[in-house]
Amino acid sequence: MPIDPHGPRDVSEDEVWATGPSYLASNKPLARLVARPVREFLRVEAAGSILLLLAAAAALIWANSPWASSYDEFWHSTISIDLGAFRIEESLQHWVNDALMVIFFFVVGLEIKYEIVSGDLRDPKTAALPIVAAIGGMLVPAGLYLLIAGGGDGADGWGIPMATDIAFAVGVLGLLGTRIPSAARLFLLTLAIVDDIGAIIVIAAFYTEELHLEWLALALVLLGVMVALRMLRVWSLWVYVVLGFFVWFALLESGVHATLAGVAIGLITPARALLKEDVARSYAQRALADRHLDPDELSRLRFLLGESVPVVERLQTALHPLSSYVVLPVFALANAGVPLGGGALGDALTSAVGLGIGVGLVVGKPVGILLACFIAVRLGLGRLPEDTTWAMVLGLGAVAGIGFTVSIFIAGLSFPGSDLLTGEAKVGILVASLVAAVVGTVLLLLTTRGRGPDAEDSQVEVEAEG
Question: What is the DSSP letter of 268?
């Protein structure tokens, strides 16, 4: 039934602000000079990348300052959780890497699930080229690394240059604005997501030191319970949060990296709305017919509206800011602090590990992606994105060479207990990621010259005159 047969009533400004504006909308100095600018900054597409970069810079400054010893002391201080028979004692850095990063990998799992069900990975024709490109962008860097560092102690680091940092890659494209065609943006985003899938497989298959099958079986059983509860239409979020914690703990004890719990739970999260929109719309019309909402009606309406949006999308929206603005910067702060003095920088960049990572990310990524795309197009497996040239593909491949977050994560798994190799790897990652970002940006600026708002407006005017 209609809410009001006479149409909506105009609401005066006095009625809207009867109780005063919200704090953010007020004219108070703190709101005007701090809160609103921060809110606007966080809405910028590259904001997460900027915070990540600032955190990495802060870690480097701290680790190379007169207070460098406090960096290691702080991040290696131990924190324990004792729950009777269950006790976990890890350094603060390990808590960040093994627990906090679960949120990041959970968001990655949600993104993968969304892309498979509703996004570009659903359409084989659209997904074919970025999938093939991602495979090329993983195999070539790994191969180059093994050629350079495969004969020594650093051989286990072959997975480091395979990674692409989505946050930084998207941030670079955000800074370039409308110069980059939307189809090219979509290509790089899909490629990065497939790259994440590859990194997850590599972590699970090759960076598990000792496997305890009983704990792994328990984790799988708990995941099965979560699926069964979903099929039984148990919708309480807290039930899944509690079960998710035990999945994480079981994987931690199994020897499989615990962050994969986030990926697994993300992949089994419902990507379809649990209720049809018509249900919420019909209830809203009935509840608002008398122009009054009581607390029970409001609670019911919130529930119906919430369940009309897929859980995957709701969780992505809720957790993406936490992942981008908190988890990843804290991870960078905890892991990017490597000493660069006393010739450490030169030694790292000339070591087999550092060179292997640098060549893999800066050269292997763009060459692998370009070569894979060329083969796929020639074989008819896919076609270049609209308005995208081969030179632009090379630039996008260079941007994909920004490994950073996931590369540092894999470096820690590659060389556990080896501060020397981990330090060399981190320096190589930081320098290579910076070079890849600069090279990718320059290439994209050169190959998209003439594009942008002004060029697009001129083109529209020419077409209108024609």
Answer: T
Query: CA-to-CA distance for 21 and 36, rounded, in angstroms?
Result: 14
Structure tokens at 331: 């991870």
User: Is the pTM higher than 0.90?
Assistant: no
Q: Shortest CA distance to 318 belongs to which of 106, 53, 34?
A: 106
Residue given tokens 């900027």 in the structure block: 50
CA distance 275 to 437: 43
Q: What band does 229 get if pLDDT is binned at 50, 70 and 90?
A: very high
Spatial separation of the C-alpha atoms in residues 167 and 104, rounded to whole Å: 11
82-116: buried (b, 16+ CB within 10 Å) or exposed (e) per residue?
eeeeeebebbebbbbbbbbbbbbbbbbbbbbbbbb
Task: Give pLDDT, residue 459.
Answer: 44
pLDDT band at 41 (very low <50, low <70, confident <90, very high): very low
For 328-397, give the DSSP string: HHHHHHHH-----TTTHHHHHHHSHHHHHHHHIIIIIHHHHHHHHHHHHHHTTS--PPTT--HHHHHHHH
Query: How many angstroms separate the CA atoms of 166 and 21, rounded?
Result: 37
Cα angle 418, 108, 354 (rounded to 5 degrees) comes to: 30
Distance between CA 363 and CA 403 in Å, rounded? 13
Range from 167-176, 375-384, 446-455 carrying the lowest mean pLDDT = 446-455
Say which residue the tokens 């070569």 belong to.
Answer: 371
CA distance linking residue 282 with residue 263, whole number of Å: 36
Residue keyed to tokens 């739970």: 265
**CA dihedral defined by 228, 232, 238, 241, rounded to 10 degrees?**
20
3-class SS of residue 159: helix
133-157 pLDDT tens trace: 999 999 999 999 999 998 878 888 9
Is there a contact between 245 and 280 (Cβ–Cβ < 8 Å)? no
Distance separating alpha carbons of residues 413 and 162, to the nearest angstrom:
14
- CA nearest neighbour of 393 among 384, 402, 401: 384
Q: Which domains does the chain have, with CATH numbers?
A: 81-98+126-204+324-465 (1.20.1530.10), 274-309 (no CATH)
